[in-house]
Design brief:
Blueprint lengths: L3 H16 L9 H5 L13 E5 L2 E5 L5 H6 L2 E7 L3 E8 L3 E7 L2 E6 L7 E6 L6 E7 L2 E4 L3 E5 L4 E5 L6 E7 L14 E3 L5 H15 L9 H10 L16 H8 L3 H7 L9 E3 L12 H17 L20 E3 L8 E3 L3 E6 L7 H4 L2 E7 L4 E7 L4 E15 L5 E8 L3 E4 L4 E17 L6 E3 L6 H4 L2 H8 L3 H9 L6 E2 L1 H9 L1
Antiparallel strand pairs: 1-2, 2-3, 3-12, 4-11, 4-13, 4-14, 5-10, 5-12, 6-9, 6-11, 7-8, 10-15, 16-17, 17-18, 18-23, 19-23, 19-24, 19-25, 20-21, 20-22, 20-23
Amino acid sequence: MANKPSILSLSLTLLLLFHGCLARSSQSQQSQNECQINRLDTIEPVARIKSEAGVTEWWNPNSKQLKCAGVAVMRHTVEPDGLVLPSFANAPQLVYIVQGRGIQGTVMPGCPETFQDSQQSQQGQSHRFQDQHQKVRRFREGDVFALPAGVVHWCYNDGNEPLITVNLHDTSNIANQLDSNPRKFHLAGNPEEEQRKLRRLQQQQQQGGSSEREDEDEDEDEDNRHDQQQRSCSNLLCGLKPEFLAQAFNVDMSIIKKLQDSQGKRGTIVRVKDGLQVIKPPRMEHEEREERQRKRQQQQQGGRGSHDNGLEETFCAMRIKENIADPERADIFNPQAGRISTLNSFNLPILRYLGLSAERGVLYNKAGLIPQWSMNAHRIFYMLRGRARMQVVNQNGKAVFDDYLEKGQLLTVPQNFAFMKRAGSEGAEWVCFYTNENAANTPLAGRVSAMRALPEEVVAVSYQISREEAKRLKFSNQDTFFFTSSSSERRTEA
């Protein structure tokens, strides 16, 4: 019989998670006023924090476009054998794996440690447990992780190349009861430098500073002044009295002193000598087979009715990961133009409670996306490869952005702002985060567009064109979301 504390903990976790379905229903008026934007610019990270085995970079959370979307964005670069130490955040996250592979652990409160390693005694009559912990997941390039607020997570690079992740924090989500500033709570390591740089960005905002970049010389001087402070301990365990911790863990004080040791300047990404030894699943092929089987089961159950309550998946075994880079997974595909893969609450149900979704897009040589707008979400674009020319237009018909989005840059397109995108000669690949679990887009041109849905006479009168011209405007592009360079060039020549 399950013990009562575990049941209580699991019940409270379920309650908090389900509460997140109202994630966007109570945004403050102050947050909405942040979207009075007359100009957009591509943005790059402004804070760079070095650790023993990697780098953490933050985009300025006080930039106008990120405050409009109510999000903060960071990027991890983890060297081989690097471990991102356990931490949790004050807001739900979507984590996209830009490059590399590894293993990841997420601690769901109240759930059992289902990964167990035991050793049989010499007599063969009993087993002695060596370790047990919650599920460990393998990941690869193109995976997206959905992490609720306050959930502890860690990851390890077991590959041969640097691991790069982009993490979006939904700081305006109702699950964040603190403020709009991103906050990470570390269970280990020495996050003092990261905390200091985030505090500086907050102070700049309070002082009315408009700079999007830190003063590097001032930062270097302050780093020198803080050399001694770096030796202090600044994770969560450091603030608790050692004697209380010794009683809580039922261990000797000598162990607690090691827990509260700052370990110098290792930071929050540390190097693991001789590799990380944890109980982990077989290689990726086995996990992919399991996911394909799970999807087949979901399709077989699809005809039983759609009146669900979100409990089809056991909470402790709920999927938090999905790959959107596989070309076979594309939801929209044009052999001449490109492809788009979407991730929402229909294919990853946990997003229903986080109020977030994502897409990964690919455009081929000089192909483009048809002009469109998002009906119910902000978009945050991160360019993975190549470059693309983008135009963004506000409610006044003014182009607030007309420039290239390059690899590694970020751009926010606010809700209802129209935009179009065209790749350069080398093509373009991106990941886009949405602030809605089921973002809906309206194309302006093409086969399922707003223009095509209007009566021909309405189009003709609205633009003072002939009925024949209105017909060509409505029906010339038979594609759904793309246009190609060849078709557009033919139209221009004509």
